[in-house]
Design a protein that fits this description.
The structure is a homodimer of 263-residue chains. Chain A has 263 residues and is an alpha+beta fold. The first copy, chain A, is 20% helix and 28% strand. In chain A, strands 1, 2, 3, 4, 5, 6, 7, 8, 9 and 10 form a ten-stranded mixed beta sheet that branches. The radius of gyration of chain A is 19 Å and the shape is globular. The interface between A and B is medium-sized, with 19 and 20 residues.
Amino acid sequence: MRNVRLHIAYDGTDFCGWQRQGERPTIQGSLELALKTILGAAVPVVGSGRTDAGVHALSQVANFRAPGTLPPLEKLQIALNNLLPPAIRITRTAPAGPEFHARHSARAKTYRYRILQAPVCSPFLSRFVLHYPFTLDRPRMARAVRYLEGEHDFTSFAAVPVRARASNQAGELLASAPKPAVRRIFSARMLWRSRLSLLIFEIRGNGFLHHMVRNIVGTLIETGRGKLAPGEISRILEARDRRLAGPTAPARGLCLVRVDYDD
Amino acid sequence: MRNVRLHIAYDGTDFCGWQRQGERPTIQGSLELALKTILGAAVPVVGSGRTDAGVHALSQVANFRAPGTLPPLEKLQIALNNLLPPAIRITRTAPAGPEFHARHSARAKTYRYRILQAPVCSPFLSRFVLHYPFTLDRPRMARAVRYLEGEHDFTSFAAVPVRARASNQAGELLASAPKPAVRRIFSARMLWRSRLSLLIFEIRGNGFLHHMVRNIVGTLIETGRGKLAPGEISRILEARDRRLAGPTAPARGLCLVRVDYDD
C-alpha cells in the first residue's frame, strides 16, 4: 500500500469547490474519477482542506493510498493530467511516508486574495480577481492587517458559529490548534503591484475557519473605504461576533497558494 | 451623426469569433446587442477585421456611427461594460473623424502567438496558450521567422484559395495591399520568456489572410521539430501552395495585440 502525495493547481471558476458532491463538478470528485480510471478501483483522495466553489489553488496538496501496484509516479502524473480537465493540473507527485495525511500533517497554509484596482477589469484576469475600481486607502489597510498576526479566536470571521468539536471546522482545523476557533497567523500583509493595479492580501497561518479569509478581506475593504479604523480589527476579534466583521468577499479573488509540512 | 472608436479586449474562448452569427455568442453580436440596449436602435459595429472562434484580443479596434444623441463617451464605456459579459471589455472609447473606418483605415496589425513549453500547463494559462511541452529548436525557428519579413504572396499560408476580389479576404485585406494574397510583414520575431517557459511569436503586418498566422505558427513548429529547414519558408511562399505549409495551430494561442492607424 503506497501513500502518494499530489500537488494540484486549479482554476476553481467552473467547480463546486474541492469536496466531492455526487455528480456535481468538484476538484476531489474529478481526481477520484481519474484515479479510478487508472487504478481500476475507487480510492479516496484526502485534501489539505476544502476550498469553496470558485476558489482557486496554485498548489493544493492531497494524498491517497494506492491498493496493489501503481505505475511509476511520473507516468501516473501524465495519465492523470490526460484524464483531468485543463482547469485541474497535477503539478507534482511524490512518494509519502506511511503516516503522511494531507490534512492532519499540514503545518501551515498560505492564501492570497487579489483585488484589481484598475478602472477596467482585463478579461484575462476577471476569473481570478475581485474587480474593485474604487478608492481604497492602502496604508490604512496595511496597518489593519498587522492586528491579525499572532494567535486569536477568529469566531468573528467564521462563516458559522464555531462548534465544540474540532473536526467540524470543514477540515480546516490543524492538529496544532488548541481551541476550535483559535488559529495562529504567522504573517499577514498587503502587497501593491502598481504596474497591474493589483492589491494582494497574503496570509499564512496554521489553519483557517470556513470563509475566514474572505470575511477578513471584506473587513479590510471596509477599512480601506474608511468605514472602520485599522485598530477595529482587534475589537472585532475580541467580540467573537460575526456581525461586527465586514461582508464575505467573492470567491474568485481567493487562491490557496501553498501548504507547508514538516518534511 | 458621431463616429465613435472602441478598443476592445476579449477572452475569445467561449465565443464563435468576432463576426455576428445570429443567436450564437460572438464579439460583434455582443457589442451590437449592448449598444442597441443603450441607444435604443440597432447600430452596426465595424471591426478592424474578424478573429476566429477561440482567438483573443488585447486591443481590437472597432467603430460605429451613432444616430441621434449619444451619452458622454466615458459614460457610454461604463454602460457597455456593465452590459457586456466579463470576457469582453471596452478598454477605451474615443471620438473618431467622419472618415474613420476600423477596417479600411487600419495600417498595421500585430498578432502574438504563445506556446507554453513547460511540462505541465498552468490552469491559469490554458485558455491562452498552446501547450507544447516537446523540444523545439528555438534558434532554428528564429532564423525561419526572418524569411517572413517584407512583401510576399501568402497564398501558401491562407486557409482557402485566394479569390480575385480583395473584399473576399475575411475583411482582412487593407487598402494598401496591392494584390489579393500579397501582404507586407513589417516585423516577425520569436521571443523566449524563460521564467514562464513561454515561446512567443510576434508578427506585425499591413494585413493577414484567414488562418495566416496560425498556419505560419504550425509551419514554425515543424521547423522547430527539425522537419523543415529555416529557409524552406521562402520556398513555401514562392510555391503558393497551401499543402506545403504546416498544420493550422490551435486558436487559443493567438491574440490580436494592436491595430495601428495613421492618427
